[in-house]
Design a protein that fits this description.
Elements: H1 3-31, H2 39-59, H3 62-85
């Protein structure tokens, strides 16, 4: 496999994992209810995604950077709503 083919696999994988996160974000925004969301889990998840983003930036790998940037924005939004709602 070429490096471009490997990068494409990473981009597709990142696209699917990021897309799988969207239903939770949409549900949270529509219902305006974060009661069922674990603050500890979302805090750890958001921090982990931020570290993956830094890792991707250090390696200069779009397949790591792009999905993790998008997921960080989405997870950060849900975490913000959770913290705001208490």
């Amino acid at each position: 496999m070429t490096q471009d083919e490997i990068e494409l696999i990473g981009l597709v994988a990142g696209g699917f994992t990021t897309a799988s996160f969207l239903p939770q974000v949409i549900k949270t925004l529509r219902e305006k209810n974060t009661a069922g969301i674990s603050l500890g889990m979302y805090s750890a998840f958001t921090f982990g995604v931020a570290l993956w983003l830094v890792y991707g930036l250090l390696l200069e790998r779009p397949a790591i950077i792009i999905p993790n940037f998008i997921t960080l924005v989405l997870a950060g939004l849900v975490l913000f709503l959770k913290l705001r709602d208490g």
